[in-house]
Amino acid sequence: MKLQSISSFRHRVSCFPEGGVSLKYCMQCSLCSSKCPVARVVESFNPRRIVCDALLGLEDEVVFKDGVWFCLSCHSCLEACPMNVKVSYLITFFKNLAVERGDVPEGVVEEVKQIFKTGRTLSLSSAVEKRRASLSLPPPPSVNVDEVRALLKEFVNVLGGEREG
């Protein structure tokens, strides 16, 4: 990787308004990773490693690996950090960089397609509806699919029209 590329990535990250400046305060204590529910079960996901790679300007390691997509955005890392590094916000920023480059895992693309089609991440089966009724739960609220589609239009366009399906 070229030095100019590393410098450019680090500059872009540092300019991210929701936590880019906080990155430089990371002392690599690993509290973010120790509190992360995903890191406990997915060995390849390590918020501290993502922050370290970002500090080093290793764009390919941060943006082009599937690791950032495991983040649940639960903000446990953010709450644990003694230096107030906005880890979860930074990971969302890295996901957005990946989307800009069209580097999105197929599972995420399929979920977006499902949301675009139905307004929900999962289809409601008749079994689920019967179970809800047996528990005296109201039916799920209806979804304004057109509104959801309008919100997703930009994301789908970034991925390319062929994936819209």
Tell me about this structure.
This protein is mainly α. It has two domains: 3-100, Alpha-helical ferredoxin (Fumarate Reductase Iron-sulfur Protein, Chain B, domain 2); 106-163, no CATH class. It has helices spanning 3-14, 31-35, 47-55, 59-63, 76-80, 87-100, 106-118, 126-134, 145-159. The protein starts with a helix and ends in a 6-residue tail after the last helix.
List keywords for this structure.
single chain, 165 residues, 2 domains, globular
Summarize the structure.
The protein is mostly helical and 165 residues long.
What count of structural domains? 2
For the largest beta-sheet, the strand count, sense and barrel status come to: none
CATH architecture designation of the largest domain: Orthogonal Bundle
Helix proportion range: 40-55%
Query: Would you tell me the structural class of the helices and strands?
Result: mainly alpha
What is the 3D form? globular
Range of strand content: under 5%
Given as residue ranges, the uncertain stretches (5+ residues, pLDDT < 50) are none
Cα-to-Cα separation, first versus last residue? 36 Å
Mean of all residue-level pLDDT scores:
86
CATH superfamily of the largest domain: Alpha-helical ferredoxin
Radius of gyration based on Cα positions: 19 Å
